[in-house]
Inverse folding.
């Protein structure tokens, strides 16, 4: 089975059919990219290497460690009228620095369980000021943030663990 046939079959399973709607346009776009990749003739190692690089680039992640050098930063102005000058990293926009040092604002993602209006539990993910993690250079941007359970602030919050409400 070819890569294009595999992709076509998988998109069919998702229900992404040809057409002028968003699903049809997304199907066309994805199959175009798969065909381009297949036409390059990658196999084994070269395919894995290209996919790894493409994945990071498409996620706006750098391929090498951030250096912290002056050329990597944009001055984004004063932080919340506090008189603190804030800089944002050009290579990875979730990294900032101020006079206290550098930090990744997406270093941690918090989660907890809630119930919807029908009583069905769902896991909620969110970031907060505590999501920041300190950055030292050279800094390798992680594949994913650290996921941390955060007990809801409500006084009558239900006990919960990774699998759900207890």
């Amino acid at each position: 089975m070819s890569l294009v046939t595999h992709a076509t079959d998988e998109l069919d399973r998702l229900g992404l059919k040809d057409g002028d709607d968003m699903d049809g346009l997304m199907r066309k776009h994805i199959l175009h990219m798969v065909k381009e990749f297949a036409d390059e003739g990658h196999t084994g190692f070269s395919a894995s290497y290209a996919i790894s690089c493409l994945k990071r680039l498409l996620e706006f992640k750098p391929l090498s460690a951030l250096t912290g050098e002056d050329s990597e930063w944009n001055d984004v102005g004063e932080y919340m009228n506090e008189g603190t000058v804030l800089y944002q990293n050009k290579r990875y926009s979730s990294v900032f620095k101020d006079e206290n040092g550098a930090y990744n604002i997406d270093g941690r993602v918090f989660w907890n369980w809630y119930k919807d209006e029908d009583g069905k539990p769902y896991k909620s993910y969110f970031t907060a000021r505590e999501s920041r993690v300190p950055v030292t250079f050279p800094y390798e941007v992680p594949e994913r943030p650290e996921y941390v359970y955060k007990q809801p602030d409500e006084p009558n919050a239900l006990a919960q663990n990774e699998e759900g409400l207890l």
Summary: The two ends are 46 Å apart (CA to CA). Strands lie at 73-79, 84-89, 95-98, 101-104, 108-115, 121-126, 133-135, 146-149, 160-161, 164-165. The longest helix spans residues 22-39. The mean pLDDT is 90.
